């Protein structure tokens, strides 16, 4: 998947005009990570977003437990974009992995200058975070039912 395809198909830009998506695409940079490389480190202050172009990543908790494994097309880092807080997890590549980096500073400038665009982007992020919370609740219920 190339950067343009990844951005245009990302839930982040759902319902945005093509010219706005083009402006986001123009800020993107492709990075390649070898297997096991750290893409994002928990507690870092960097708020850049990443889209997995090829390969996969593991999201790890502070204890080193794998929380999730995400593949092509997945967006990483949206929580830090929303709250500007340190990263909540570490992300490591699984095998060689290509990602698109979307600089947070560029995205914030775009969102600050265009309130209607910001509303759509933050709504899209809220929807995916809501889905993740629901999935986490199901997993937590299953663990509690087993007595863990």
Write the layout of secondary structure elements.
Layout: H1 3-9, H2 18-25, E1 29-33, E2 38-40, E3 49-60, E4 66-70, E5 75-76, H3 78-83, E6 90-102, H4 104-113, H5 115-145
Antiparallel strand pairs: 1-6, 2-6, 3-4, 3-5, 3-6
Structural commentary:
This protein is an alpha+beta fold and 148 residues long. It is built from five helices and six strands; from the N terminus they run ααβββββαβαα. It has one domain (3-145): Jelly Rolls (Sandwich), CATH 2.60.120. The chain is 42% helix and 27% strand. Strands 1, 2, 3, 4, 5 and 6 form a six-stranded antiparallel beta sheet that branches. A hairpin with a 5-residue loop joins strand 3 (49-60) and strand 4. Helix 1 packs across helix 2 and helix 4 (104-113) crosses helix 5.
Name the overall outline.
globular
- Would you report the number of β strands? 6
Question: Which architecture does the CATH hierarchy give at level 2?
Answer: Sandwich
The CATH topology annotation reads as: Jelly Rolls
CATH superfamily: Jelly Rolls
What's the CATH class, please?
A: Mainly Beta
Report the helical percentage.
40-55%
Number of domains: 1
Which residue ranges are poorly predicted, with pLDDT under 50 across at least 5 consecutive positions? none
Tally the helices: what do you get?
Answer: 5
Q: What integer is the average pLDDT?
A: 94
Evaluate the radius of gyration: 16 Å
Note the gap between the termini: 40 Å
What share of the residues does DSSP label as strand, in percent? 25-35%
List SSEs in N-to-C order.
HHEEEEEHEHH
What class do helices, strands and sheet pairing give? alpha+beta
Main beta-sheet annotation:
6 strands, antiparallel
